[in-house]
Amino acid sequence: MPPHLPPATLRLRIDRQALAANWRALDRLSGKARAGAAVKADCYGVGVIHALPALLEAGARDFFVAHWSEVADVLAHVPGAQISVLHGVTSGAEAAYALATGVRPVINSLQQAAIWRAAGGGLCDLMVDTGINRLGVSLAELGDPLVKQLSVHTLLSHLASADEDSALNAVQLERTRQAAAAVAHQRLSLANSAGIALGADYAFDLTRPGLALYGGIARSELADHIRQVVFPQAMVIQRRRIGAGESVGYNATFTAAADMETATVSIGYADGFLRCRGAGAALQHCGQNLPVRGRVSMDMVVVDCTAYATLSVGDFVDIPFDLPNVAQSSGMSQYELLTTLGKRFSRIS
Ligand SMILES: *Cc1c(COP(=O)(O)O)cnc(C)c1O
Fold first, then answer.
1. pLDDT (tens digit, 9 = 90+) per residue, 49-74?
2. Is residue 40 annotated as part of the catalytic site, yes or no?
3. Which CATH architecture has domain 15-216?
4. Helix (H) or strand (E) holding 247
5. Which residues line ligand 1 at a C-beta cut-off of 6 Å?
6. Is 270 exposed, middle or buried (0-12, 13-18, 19+ CB in 10 A)?
7. Does the UniProt entry include the keyword Isomerase (predicted)?
8. What is the distance in A from the centroid of ligand 1 to the CA of 287?
9. Rounded average pLDDT over 84-104
10. Which atom, in ligand 1's list, is nearest to the CA of 213?
């Protein structure tokens, strides 16, 4: 028998109730449209194992991943789930896998349409690029015979700037309507999380929230509806006394002005706590602020705990994860904060 693994020194509490409530709020805000769920990148780092059952229970039925490698994990938790693969089919092997799993590719180009047809085809989704210029067939290509012969379940487009009051939003809305008039389809889908906040015009039949499910706030209109889902904590692994004039961490970027006490905490940039999240930031314990001192290392960060005599090895400190605030102070996006969380957290829900 392998030895029993001791408890992790990094943990991620996932509030399933908050996640389910976020999906229901987004479904409600989607009006007559249903809300789906973007579950790519292991549910934005939250963990498919924890997030998918909550989403399913809340009522989500339409799931979006980016890679074929993400399909099996989703199917394991939701057998028979409606899954769409956003990257579509770039090879016959991917098309064969789609057919074998019953998962729909999102066709993104005439080349992909040809690959899908050569593989035998069948029901698929179709992405129309209305202005993000990333993936998707152009409006001009919609009349192409390769597109005409597709059997389109969901016709999609994707907003480039839904989190801003950009003129591009209305342009993309209008082009989406043009696309819908040009291609036979069962359902039409445009809005991501931020797009849901743009109003009923953008919702069509199906919305595709991702970020907001996991507690991200893409537009201020959503702030009152979205709850924090992810709560990271890391353990104190050493407490030290540092004399005046001593420095802390790589490259000695911090020097103690006076004698002080520090705690070394078991989280680093390998856990998504990048250097930009250390500067000027503080961790917390029982509501007390523990300012970060010196550079963030790969596996550790040092905090000032001079004012907090009882903080000891084995205590868990809270890592700030109010996504809009941490994004603002670190310069990372809310998406990056979630998806860089890493594998060393013991996820609890
Ligand atoms: C990731 C993604 C979404 C979800 O977007 P959020 O901004 O996270 O809500 C929706 N649609 C497509 C095509 C995506 O790639």
1. 999 999 999 999 999 999 999 999 99
2. yes
3. Alpha-Beta Barrel (3.20)
4. strand 247-248
5. 38, 40, 86, 158, 192-194, 208-212, 218
6. middle
7. yes
8. 34
9. 97
10. 9
